[in-house]
Specification:
By secondary structure, the protein is mostly helical. The protein has helices spanning 33-39, 49-66. It has a domain at 44-79.
Length: 79
């Protein structure tokens, strides 16, 4: 049985760790380390109290930007 079938394919290759580069084109672009750390955290569900708090903060900012008192101020993709 070969290593791939035995579930040891990861042992066949060295770790992929490219050297840091400064990417200045239209894409792909470098990702800030803080963003990578945040993306590695467990996901929050849409009904999680912490997520609801974030949404309330975002809606409050949108109300200021759009100068509205509408409680449910959200941006929605309409295409």
């Amino acid at each position: 049985m070969n290593d791939v079938v035995a579930g040891k394919a990861k042992d066949l290759f060295e770790a992929l760790e490219p050297e840091p580069r400064l990417l200045m084109g239209p894409g792909p672009v470098d990702v800030y380390p803080a963003v990578l750390r945040a993306m590695s955290l467990p996901m929050l569900g849409q009904f999680d109290p912490q997520f609801t708090d974030y949404m309330n903060q975002v809606m409050a900012l949108y109300r200021q930007i759009y100068r509205t008192a509408n409680q449910w101020t959200l941006l929605v993709n309409g295409t």
